[in-house]
Each structure stands twice: as C-alpha cells, then as structure tokens.
Design goal:
single chain, 254 residues, alpha/beta, five-stranded mixed β-sheet, 8 helices, 31% helix, elongated
Length: 254
C-alpha cells in the first residue's frame, strides 16, 4: 500500500477547543484513530462515519503496553491506509511520540507529525501563572517527575539552583520527595502550584510553599492528571487562591 501512513497528532492540553485546524483535518481524513485516555472524546466527532475509533489507554492499570500500541499502529495502517495516533498535549513532550514514529518507519510507513498545545505551558497559563516575568526569571524548565525506573529526576536538583520556573509533569506520586528536596536545598519557601485538569471546566488549582506542597495537595484533594509548578511566578496566580492561604494561616495562629 503506497499510501499507507501514520499521522502523530497532538490533541492539546484537555479543552477540546484547543486543537489545531491541521489536527482536525488529519482526524477527518483518517481511516482509524488510536486515542489515549487524556484525549477528550469530543474530538472524535471530527472522525468520518467509516473511521475506526480505537481506545488504547495510557493510564496506570488500564493501558495497552507500548509494544502493543506500536504493533496496532502498523497493522491498522497497512489494513486501512491512513492512521492517526491521537495523543494528549504534544506527542513530542513526554509522549513517546518518537518511539511510535520510528517503529512505523521500520515497516516502511510514511509518517507525519502535527504538533499539539502542551499542558506544560497551557495548564500553567490557565491558572493565570506566567512562565516568565521580566526581572523574576530568565527561563522555564519542563521535566518529568518520574523517570522510567521510577525515581525522581535529578534535573530537579539542577533546576532548583536557578531562578527558572520548573514545570513538572507526571510527578504527583513524588510530591513528598519534591518537597523534601526543595527544603534540603534551601527552597522550602518558594511558591508552588498544582493544576489538576488544566484548561478543562473541572480544572482545580492549589497553591502553597514548597514545604507545604504534599500537605496542600492532600487537603485540596488534588490528584492526576496534574501539573506541578515551582517558582516565584506562582505568586501571580489568581489572587483568591493566595487569599485563601493567608486566611488559613491567620486562623491557625488564633
């Protein structure tokens, strides 16, 4: 099949309206769409009536293995002709997109990439937190909180020695480690935020110091999917969030 091809498409950070026009066109022309758990099913309305829609998980306990997904991509491309691999955020930002493209190419398939808006900055912005502010910081770092071996990334130690805003994806199971590390490096007072379901109608936000990060998440009931932000830019988050923290502090003092 000379036209057999795979499009790796970013679905955006959660809000189904935050998808590119090019992504919609790719979905509309696909014979099969393989989509993840973080993809809003409202996006599947753009599929043709003959398109095969295949859920492939990607959450703990309910996910296909990566090898199974890779094989399915190739099988569907050769059987049907045009496959869209629809992934949350941007496929090349901790999305294992390169692994899937390389596997497809090994079987002679044509491949293409359609970028998506990443939650690493969209979720943060939706909480009204700017990633950079002139005079406050000169960069922002995006990192995974959990490496493939289950450990906390050592990049966090490097980042905490700078003025950079640190954005941590897939780090909710490492909150205590993150908090402890911040304190050990003298950054226990730095401002932090957790944004759950960023850009969505059910978005929830919590703010605290790094020292109180794990405690705050527990009190607020914040869980995955969520983005963690560390840096003084968090002080720009919605004022009512910080007002709530101030009120609680005053009540605790009384």
């Amino acid at each position: 099949m000379e036209k057999a091809r795979v499009y790796l498409v970013g679905a955006g950070p959660g809000d189904p309206e935050l998808i590119t026009l090019k992504a919609i066109k790719a979905i509309a022309s696909a014979q099969a769409v393989l989509y993840d758990a973080l993809v809003d099913k409202a996006l599947l309305v753009h599929c043709s009536t003959s398109c095969e829609q295949i859920y492939v998980g990607k959450r703990a306990g309910s996910s296909h293995s990566q090898n199974a997904i890779n094989t399915l991509i190739v099988e569907k491309a050769y059987a049907l002709g045009h496959v869209v691999r629809l992934k949350g955020g941007d496929p090349f930002v901790f999305g294992r997109g390169q692994e899937e493209i390389e596997y497809a190419r090994e079987f002679g398939l044509l491949t293409d990439y359609v970028p998506g808006i990443s939650s690493s900055y969209a979720a943060v912005g939706s909480a009204q937190i700017p990633l950079t502010i002139r005079g406050v910081n000169e960069s922002f770092w995006v990192m995974t909180g959990t490496k493939s071996d289950g450990s906390l990334t050592s990049d966090l130690t490097l980042g905490l020695q700078s003025s950079a805003t640190l954005v941590i994806l897939m780090g909710m199971n490492k909150l205590k480690e993150i908090s402890d590390l911040c304190q050990s490096l003298g950054k226990g007072d730095v401002s932090c935020a957790i944004i759950q379901n960023g850009t969505m109608k059910n978005q929830r936000i919590g703010v605290s110091s790094a020292a109180e990060l794990a405690t705050m998440a527990s009190k607020e009931g914040l869980t995955n999917p969520a983005v963690i932000v560390i840096g003084e830019v968090v002080r720009q988050a919605k004022p009512e969030l910080w007002q709530k923290i101030t009120q609680i502090s005053k009540e605790n003092e009384q």
